[in-house]
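Subject: Protein record for review, amino acid sequence with backbone structure tokens
Why sent: The fold of this protein is of interest and is recorded here as tokens.
Enclosed: The protein record, placed directly beneath this head.
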Amino acid sequence: MDDPIRIEIMKHLFVSVAEEMGVRLQRSAYSPNIKERRDFSCAVFDASGQLVAQAAHIPVHLGAMPLSVQACVQALTFAPGDVAMVNDPYQGGTHLPDITMVSPFYAPRESNGRLMGFVANRAHHADVGGMSAGSMPLSEEIFQEGMIIPPIKLVCSGEIHQDVWNLFLANVRTPRERAGDLHAQLAANRIGIERMQGFMQRYGSVQISRDMDAMIDYGERMTRQLIAELPDGLYRFEDRLDDDGITTEPVTIAVSVAIAGDEVTIDFTGTDSQRTGSINAVYPITLSAVVYVFRCLLGLDIPANSGCMKPIHLIAPEGTVVNARFPAAVAGGNVETSQRIVDVVLGALAQACHERIPAASQGTMNNVAIGGWDRGRQQPFTYYETIGGGMGARPTGNGASAIHSHMTNTLNTPVEALEYAYPFRVRQYTVREGSGGQGSFAGGDGICRSYEFLQQAHVTILSERRSYSPYGLAGGQPGHSGRNQLQRSGELQELPGKCRIDVQSGDILRIETPGGGGYGSQSENY
């Protein structure tokens, strides 16, 4: 049996590496999306690409990142000083703006210098090319969404591969900002390698290898213990996406959760086929969302690593919106469908352990991408952010208001940072009072955020829960659905949940995000 005290100490040491990588990435980045919103994630992996430890960053990144690392391991031969990059959603990525950097670390030469593992980070770049600024378009195939990067070496033996660097920057709208963010990602991996090498100098590479294995085994044991505490049975649930942005037809996601002893099978058979629009999720996204739900049930003290995934068996039929085939458009699958996957898995588990499961949170990231030519700076600009909303009420309390939830863990962009960097201003940024569902405990309220444009620009919106509201539980009322509006020349027009519009100076875009569902009937006491 592994020493529990050593496991606890090493858990915090490994996590500290990922956390410090995140600090360096944030402080070094150029774009507000990474520097202010913290739209990035960092982690440590063993030599086979299994996740050992992660920072408390973004769930949709971290659950999928092991598949990106493993894709790089299979495609490339690594040497000291190398750094691989990848963003291909069909090779472990999430969507094209999320670029992953993977760097190997090795044992000291006196300990045979063998490959010990990898450090990696994933950051959302505000533009990677494609048919619209921000690379979050109303696309119909992945080729319209930006530059696809398979596993490829960006750095060889410590030297940047300049041809690869130049090729990437030639295909984006804001090359200076992208270059700054890429350098920040490289810097984050360097500090991760330094810290892991320091641990090997202190404890020995053989012991560090054993500690990484012990960490993964511990995550598996604790996950199996959690599942064993849940009642055996088959639990079903389904919910809908509003549409795919191309047609108005809703998209059903269905799940059955089969609990048997200390293992669980999550089966999405019955889910709708992949769609023309970009709401298709690739397999890594679905896996990430499923693992996230069980990770939430485990609690904060249990390490989040590949061991937590071993007792969870996923069935995601190929060709559906939860496991799309190439070359399906996937920009919205990462940010919107991932949220609905969480909603349906939680809805099914509420039948097995209602005392642990909250009502539905806002169920969308309310993606806003804005781009154009900045006349003042005489250069292109691209802006991207997601907007928080209401969390679902819990069995023991109200839901939090105006916060990012579930598959996103970013911050809202500060008004000052936004107005300094871009040619528009924020006219309103308030809590959307009364938007949470009622119940014994109320769902959290959403956000009202309005942008006034100071010059011509192009806007893309990918949002959900505009037609189907976040559900309540145990008799609680659903949260209010969201709303998108454009004010032009004094007239207010309703916008669909997914759209691309051209705006003029003086136009005002208003986003009202959904509230969370309520929990319990108001006539009952919980």
User: Anything to note?
Assistant: Residues 136 and 331 are 6 Å apart (CA to CA). The radius of gyration is 22 Å. The first strand starts at residue 40 and ends at 46.
